[in-house]
């Protein structure tokens, strides 16, 4: 009889975790999950309403310095140059600075040849001995120091910018802003891996846009951003971030937020969206994902708090699904979560120019959290390789 009673206790009150006195644990877990879920649902609903394209009032054209750091990008830089030639921004109000970051291929030769017909473009070369900072920091810092413009616009060598890119940044940039954040889509191809990369990029875009639109920028995308040169110099710039092997964009945004006054805003104009070529091999994809997740341990407290909040919510919900006393409540929360997420993600697909992802949303709603935990864990261990 005593044995039967003990079995009931083990099943109904999780006493095997918290001891025989923990008779109220199922109710406590329901309360905690309910509160976390309410907060999460509010954030998801807010996300759906915030992701609305905007058109900004036209402003007088200001001078921009466009900066592109390129290392071994000979195969990918030509589409970018072609897109820069189509910019509708006045040639007299811009300069374009390419930085050959000690490439070992024909990147420098190709850029030199192609920019002869690109007004205001020039090339800076960085030797291997001059690569004193990790990643792209040294190349970007040198270009910024040589730039003539007060407004700096940055993209990557494997991107394609739309004709209205600089005009969208110019119209969005007001006198109180020190940095503008944008988004970069991943080019669409057939196959599961490409769908995964595009969904991962969509989620990253949400994590950049929504906090910034709420007034607390936590992240950024180095493939599409702009900032004031004076703000960069005042912050100390990339030399202040030498300890970070990757995450140049994210940590520069945090440096601006911590050291400077002024606004860091997200540019919601559709004309600011750039696109980037997806990695070509599974090996490239794997190391890119690991490298991206390596930033987590060094992020700011608000970013870490958000990550911890999401982790606890999903872990608690998953555990409660396996116990009779809490499974119904946890399943209800899971159903509501999937429904609200689907609506927000559907809205995000339109906002970030990814309507083709809508058909894959149910699949990645279930799969992505698991992949994110695995890749995030590997990234935090620092097990990644940088581009040679």
Automatic annotation (TrEMBL):
Domain Glycosyltransferase 2-like: 65-194
Keyword S-adenosyl-L-methionine: no
Keywords assigned: Membrane, Transmembrane, Transmembrane helix
SUPFAM superfamilies: Nucleotide-diphospho-sugar transferases (SSF53448)
Cited InterPro entries: Glyco_trans_2-like (IPR001173), Glycosyltransf_2 (IPR050834), Nucleotide-diphossugar_trans (IPR029044)
Transmembrane region(s): 28-52, 301-322, 328-346, 367-386
Keyword Protein transport: no
PANTHER family, sorted: GLYCOSYLTRANSFERASE (PTHR43685), GLYCOSYLTRANSFERASE 2-LIKE DOMAIN-CONTAINING PROTEIN (PTHR43685:SF2)
Protein name: Glycosyltransferase
Organism, as annotated: Caldithrix abyssi
